[in-house]
Specification:
A seven-stranded mixed sheet has the order 1-2-5-11-7-8-9, with no helix packed on it. A three-stranded antiparallel sheet has the order 10-6-12, with no helix packed on it. Helix content is 5%, strand content 35%. It has 189 residues and is mainly β. It has one domain: Jelly Rolls (Sandwich). A hairpin with a 2-residue loop joins strand 7 and strand 8. The model has no long low-confidence stretch (mean pLDDT 93).
């Protein structure tokens, strides 16, 4: 995404666009473009796939672009993970919220259930209905509900690890899509 593109349930610019099923990146940017010492490492273990996937063949700036590609872990015993470390005190001192964006391709199924965890907090989310040709908009999912955004409130500390674990699918085609995450500080803003 270009630095000027705005995306997210909490609209922001300067997204840190990263590629590949696993990797690391340092000097993450804040939404105002300021470079920080924060780092990220990610991994998307998968069997029979690359560990990454795309929702639509077309591309448009903003939300559709951000939600198009995703980490695609498909092994229940091996979740996809994203570890963020080195968050500056200006972000971590008062607690922050982590928004997890999760929209996977449902071209052939009618539903799937995904599980996302940070520390001792786990949120189960369902996706229902066939995939649309364009991004349908954001829906925040309460634990056990449907949607494509889950929010971990009042996370603390300079680092955290998000785990994305496939939970269920009627046809056994398990996934736990992870399109992106957003750190919102202070908590509740």
């Amino acid at each position: 995404m270009a630095a000027t593109e705005t995306a997210g349930y909490k609209p922001a610019a300067s997204w840190n666009s990263l590629a590949g099923a696993s990797g690391t990146s340092s000097q993450l940017k804040r939404s105002d473009g300021t470079v920080t010492a924060a780092q990220v490492a990610w991994s998307s273990p998968a069997q029979g796939s690359t560990g990454i996937y795309q929702n639509w063949p077309s591309d448009s700036p903003g939300n559709m672009r951000m939600m198009n590609g995703y980490l695609d872990p498909n092994l229940p015993g091996m979740p996809g993970t994203v570890t963020v470390s080195g968050l500056p005190a200006a972000v971590s001192a008062g607690g922050y919220d982590v928004y997890v964006y999760c929209l996977g391709d449902l071209s052939y199924q009618t539903s799937r259930t995904y599980q996302y965890s940070i520390g001792a907090t786990t949120i189960l989310v369902s996706q229902v209905g066939l995939s649309l040709p364009t991004f349908p908009g954001f829906t925040v999912a309460a634990s056990g509900g449907t949607g494509n955004v889950v929010i971990f409130r009042n996370v603390s500390g300079a680092s955290f690890t998000l785990a994305a674990t496939p939970a269920s699918s009627p046809d056994g085609n398990l996934r736990a899509p992870l399109n992106g995450l957003q750190i919102v500080s202070p908590t509740g803003s």
